[in-house]
Amino acid sequence: MSDIATSSIEEALDFAFNLIMPVISEAGESDSVKAQEFLRQVSDYVSLRYAGELELAFEWLQNFDSLSSQEFPNYASQFKRQMSWLQNEFK
Predict the structure, then answer these.
(1) CB 54, CB 13: distance < 8 Å
(2) Cβ contacts of residue 88 below 8 Å, gap of 6+?
(3) Predicted confidence band at 85 (pLDDT cuts at 50, 70, 90)?
(4) How far apart are alpha carbons 58 and 12 in whole angstroms?
(5) What's the CA gap between 76 and 91, in Å, rounded?
(6) Which of 8, 12, 25, 65 is 20 to 30 A off residue 42, Cα-Cα?
(7) In the chain, how long is the greatest CA-to-CA distance?
(8) Which of 34, 82, 36 is nearest to 61 (CA)?
(9) Exposure string for 27-56, b = 16+ CB within 10 A, e = fewer
(10) pLDDT at position 1
(11) CA dist., res. 82 & res. 45, Å (int)
(12) What distance in Å separates the CA atoms of residue 54 and residue 75, rounded to the nearest whole number?
């Protein structure tokens, strides 16, 4: 059983995004300035993803790899596997 999404690039992007949403939410709770920045970044992702700019959306998600790894190791492993699958699809 796979714990990542592999049926399409779109589904995989959305799944990776969902994996980092708890990271973004928790990181922004303690700092209102950080929360505003994260909200802008989430808006950027949504705009890219639904405008069909899939590779740009993927690149945007890569920016959260370090945040995920440092602060939320439970999500990091699954997120890295999802991002690795996506990277292979874009080759």
Answers:
(1) yes
(2) none
(3) very high
(4) 10
(5) 23
(6) 8
(7) 40
(8) 82
(9) bbeeeeeeeeebeeebeebeebbeeeebee
(10) 42
(11) 16
(12) 22
CA distance to 8, 19, 25, 32, 70, per residue, from 47 (Å): 19, 18, 19, 23, 27
The DSSP code sequence of the chain is: --SS--S-HHHHHHHHHHHHHHHHHHHHHT-HHHHHHHHHHHHHHHHHHHTT-HHHHHHHHHTTHHHHHHH-HHHHHHHHHHHHHHHHHH-
Q: Could you tell me the pTM of the whole model?
A: 0.83
Query: Which pLDDT belongs to residue 48?
Result: 95
- 9-29 and 54-62 helices, crossing angle to 10°: 40
